[in-house]
Structure formats: C-alpha cells, structure tokens
Amino acid sequence: MAALSTVSVRPSTLMCPNSTAASSTSVRSGYPDWVLLNKTARISADRNATTASCRTRDGQAVAVSFWLADPPNISHFSVHCPGIEDEDFADPPPFFIESGTRDGPPYPESGYYAFVIAAEGAFVLFCVTLDGSDHHFVYSARGHPTGKKKNKPSLHVLPDPKPAVEAFESQQFGILPLGDDEHYAVAFLEYRWDSRGNAWVYRAYVFSSETKAWRRSRDVLLRLSESDRILFDRHATSKRIAVGATSLGWVDLLRGIILLSNIFDDERPVITYIPLPATKVCITDKHGYPHYAPEYFCDVVCCDDLIKFVEVDFEDPDYRANGKAWKATTWNWKVSWDDWRKVRTIDVADISVDPRYSALLFPHLLSDDNKQELELKNLFYLNPTLSVCGDDDFLYMLAKVDEGDDIAWVAAVDMKNAALHALVPVSTNESNAIPMYYACAFPKYYINNITSDMGNPVEKDKSDKLQQGGANSNDYGGNLQKKRRKKKQARVVDHRVERPFLLYFIGCVFVAIIVKVLCHLS
C-alpha cells in the first residue's frame, strides 16, 4: 500500500527548496513547478539561493528570499531590511480581506512588514511598508539576462507614476510577463462614470520594465446591459490575473472580471466585462451585498488563456461544513467562448478518504464507532483555490477541526477521481491575509545554476555587505535610518547630560553639610 501524503510531510517552516517536502519538482531547476505562497512575509535575515536585494528610493536596503515546497504545502517568503533592528518591527497587522479598497492591511505607525500583491510567470509583485510608507518591488526568478549576475534572481523597485495618480494608492496592480520572460509590465486602472455617454470610462496606466517608465492609454468606454450594470456598479477587485500574452483581468469574486486587452496599444485598448457563471451560488442579500467574504467560497485563476473558476456550495454557509454537506463546482472560460463551460461537480459525501488519515490525524472525527473513516464534512473549510497548471484537476482548501484553531490542514482533493489526495498541516497564526495563500508559478523559471549552492542553503544576511558601495552608501538607510539614529543618539545624550548634573548636585549638598557642621563646631 502506498504511503500517505501527509506522513512524511512536516508542518510548513522555513524550508530549503531541496527538502523532502518538495520532492516533485521541476526538471529544469529542482524547484516546484508552482506553489501556494503565503501572502504575508516573515521578517527574517535568513538567505538562500533565491535571495535577491535592492534599495528603496530612500536608500534602504531590502532583501527577499523564498522558501518553497510542493503543494499542498504552503511556501513562504521572507523580507529583511538591514539596519532596522528587532525593536523597530511592526506588530503583526490585523487580518485583512482582499475584496476591500486595497490589498494590504492597515498600516502600523512604525516598523515594517510585507505582503504579496500579484504574481504571474517568473514575477512576484509585493509591497513593503516602512514606517507607513509603501515601497513596491518586483521579484524575478529568471533574473538578469546578462552580466555578472546572469540568470540570478533579481529585485527591482517599482517607481511611482509622475505626476501622482490617486488610483495608484489602491494598489490594484496586475503584472503581465512579456514574451521573453525577462521583462514585465505592471498596470492599474483609473475609471469614472460618464453620465452623458451612460458608460464607464477607463484609462490604463502601464509601467514597462524595458522602458522603465509609466504611460497612460487613451480613454475607453465600457457599455453594459442593464442586468450587467446592476452587478458591475458594485464591482470591487479582489485579485488580478494575466490572461494570455496581452490581457489583464481585475477579478471580483462575486460580480465578475474586468478584462483589459491590447494592453500595450495605447490607442486601441479594449475593456470588456465577463460575468461569472449565472448558476453560481448566491451569498448576497437582496441588495447585492455579500453576507460573507467571497474568498471563503470561491476563487479564480488563469493558466495561459484558460480562466478557471471554482465555488463551494455549503449546505449552511454560516458553518461551512462542521457536519454539513457541501459541493464544489468548477468552470472554464476562454476569450473565444461565448460563455462559461462547466467542468465538474463533486459532493463531499462522494470523496474517498484513505482510512489511515483518520487513525493518524483525526480519530475523534470518525463517522461512527463501526467505521474507521474520516468524513470530510466534519471539518471546517475556507479558501478554496485551483492550481495554475492547466492539466491539474485538484482543488485545494484550508480545513480546520474548529474555526478558531491556529493549526489548519491544506486538503488537496482530486476532483476527477473524487479522492482526498493529500492532507498537510500548516500554522495559520503567522498569516494576516484572507485568503492565506496565492497560487503562483514563478519557481519553474529558476535557472539551473542557482541551485549549485543548495548544500548549505540558509545563511544569515550580512547587513554590512549591503551597506557597502552603491547609491546613498554614505547615507545608508536614508531618512528612515537617520530618524532612528537621532532617536537613539538623543537617548544617549540625555543620559550623558543627566549624570554630570546629578554628581554636581550631590557634591553641592555634601559641601553644604560639611560647612554647616564646621560652623556649628566653631
């Protein structure tokens, strides 16, 4: 009998890409073809062969590293800002849900943290917040095509558009790889309602890594039917997806996808609206507002030009299982199709489970005394997602015994064969995002030569190395570091000033006592 997928798998930690948890890997580089990446970064000075670094516009050094494992394990990324000490770290930000006005959690007043915004192809776009100031970076697994760091991972600052654009602050960025996988484009949308034309007016702002500049497209109208407009008027983007080579989609998991095509043609961009399947489950009230976060029930991913949508229909959405029934349904869509095409539906009652899962993991959740079989409906579920591999028919869901547990299990369900394929433990108390993870394929773009030093993969970040040379090397850390140094210097000066005055005061008192005693004796 084959071994269970969970037996040899450790809870997700800072793992080397060559660890046993990442046994099914890309032939090209020894890394997974795709990963479920925790959206919230760890603050750590640990480094490995994936590490890349650069500087913010203020001169602060930033290094990012990835710790990868095959799904359903959760992969992680870590960020290190040398020179910012442990006492300056931000408190963990509260949980945030993507379908708000921005992707990131509320800013702390001091310290730093980081979170993923988007990932496509070889690229990961993420934000680092330093003392309330946003800094956006693009990480490339493919790296530099030439030079001393040829084929090594690279990190680049995404500049702000000039002049400033208010829509930039919402961080609703999509990233689109260019044909050679060495360059990329980042885009966001600005829109307004045109009452005269009875239509929404869009314009796209696109940054190219080739030109290193932002450009703005001409205005383009989006006219909708009355039924589509009712849905669209409440559209709130929760994620962005690349569709084919020249299109980006802004996804609202309740109301559909805004598709920007011809993204590189400033004169002829095209905006279209793609409603989600009409038969999808309704989790909104009579006014169209959601009772629950849609990320708990559904997800959209795209593989090349194939958009995949999944939704879980719980018998009781208030409980999301815990003994209640549920069904999961998947659909596919392509630009050349007129409508969504249903792929399949599975019922939780029909999913086969290896009995050894029950004995090893959940003996108290067995269906009854006579059956040594785990009933999946006895778990609590959230965050369904699909892989970004086109031929993968697996559904990944976060499962807990109780909703408040810090320990969860990522369940991989083979939808084609209606079977539980793997069940992997993961801690949820270090993630501040809903959903917790992001499906992305950047690891398969690593080049072979970055794995040559994997024998000793983890080393501490040598902050002095990052401080030597380069722009602003004499003013390392920019204004952020200056402020921190001044505060510390002020405390040191205060102590130095206080001590002489204290000694002087004690001496004066002592002299006064001696004088008084001598006068009394005389």
Compact description:
By secondary structure, this protein is mainly beta.
Provide an overview of this structure.
Helix content is 12%, strand content 36%. The chain is built from four helices and 33 strands. The longest helix is centred in the last third of the chain and has 44 residues, at 478-521. Residues 1-28, 90-110, 452-456 and 463-502 have low confidence and may be disordered.
Q: How would a textbook summarize the main sheet? A: 6 strands, mixed
Low-confidence stretches: 1-28, 90-110, 452-456, 463-502
Looking at the structure, what is the overall shape?
Answer: globular
SS elements, strand count: 33
* Number of helical regions: 4
What fraction, in percent, of the residue positions are helical? 10-25%
- Give the distance, in angstroms, between the N- and C-terminal Cα atoms: 106 Å
Structural class determined from secondary elements? mainly beta
Determine the mean pLDDT. Answer: 76
Rg to the nearest angstrom? Answer: 27 Å
